[in-house]
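Hmm, how's this folded?
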Amino acid sequence: MQKLAYFSQALGVPLPCSFEIYNFGPYSDTVTFTVESMLADEIIEDASQTRKYSNYRLKHSSSGFDKEIMKSVAPYRQKIENVVKVLGKFEPNQLELLATLHFIAKKIQSLGGQATKQAVVTQFFRIKKDKFPEDEVSSWYDSLKTANLI
């Protein structure tokens, strides 16, 4: 949820949350609080088969909520669906890598710098150490650049 929310916001969906780098890439307390609240209020449920990763689904008993959400989401539905379609199939560690690269590039740009491959990858390894192979990080940077995401 964190990475899908992060990329949705990065692509223009106005989510009322801010992200900072944390253990597994961009993280927002607001996203966590919202998901936990929706679980507690039984608006969504975790349909995962394991406790390793979550698989959230709307509960059928939340039909009134569905209608309200759909109205506010309607203008952004296509963007959200695209994010889920493209990124929803990635493993969490791949999303961590992609989102962290993207976050670093955007942070460098917001500070007036150039998000060159060398600058982004160097900063990535300062944060992530040796968690990911250099060739994989380099390849994903190129993919984000080709997709005009950085």
Notes: Helices lie at 2-10, 29-40, 63-73, 77-87, 92-110, 117-128, 134-146. The mean pLDDT is 90. The first helix runs from residue 2 to 10. The two ends are 21 Å apart (CA to CA).
